[in-house]
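S.,

Sequence below, as promised.
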Amino acid sequence: MTNNQSVRAGICRAVCDALKPLPSVLAGWEGGSVAFGAVDDYSDIDLTFIVSDEVAYEVLYASAENALATISPIAVRHDVPPGRYYKLQDVGEFLLVDVCFFRVGALDHHLEIERHGHILPLFDKGEWLRPRPLDTEALTSKRVERLRELQTWFLVSQSFVKKAILRGQHVEAVNAFWAYTLKPLAELLRMRYCPARWDFGMRYLDRDLPPALYDQVRDLAFTSDLADLERKFSEAAAWGAALLWEVKSDPNARTTERK
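The prediction came back faster than expected:
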């Protein structure tokens, strides 16, 4: 076991040892990179627990923080609902610990394999960690709603990028390009190639798209100057428009690579 693996295992063990005895904590698992077999030296530790509907979150976080403090002093804590990130002082620059609690009554426990991978169970006091079937009907409904929004808004919103470029506003143009062109483009590509994670934004994009398409998105994302941004914006906007047209004319069509 490498030093990084040893540290990860120690953190997981400490938090589990603190939370498992609590009657209000029903199950725990590690997700994130572990669930996709993609752990490396830069991976976070994603710890998730199913808890009773009545327990106060701060009681649970206090127990988790006391456990983390046995490994290292906590340098920073930051809430990113539904979880809380911790930066530990003595475990390296990149290793963040994300601790998340889902109540029993929550609609989504992030246990669908198609969306969240194969979790690593840490403990289960019942059968809480059985993989949940993907609610394809609900997911499809949200995807169709977003697609309709893009069909009316994508082309119109490209004006935000164009006018920032024409004004010579470099920073504003790059920001608009990402917000109104690249991110919707990624959504449209995911709707084709990984519909179960159509709403994951840029996360896991290298895993979810065919390599050639991922390379095309990657090349569009990096711009050297305003002229390069203008050229890549034109390509990306045209690609997005073509995808929207394909969906409108044939919902079952497969996308093609840019020529």
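DSSP finds eight helices and six strands in the chain.

Coffee later?
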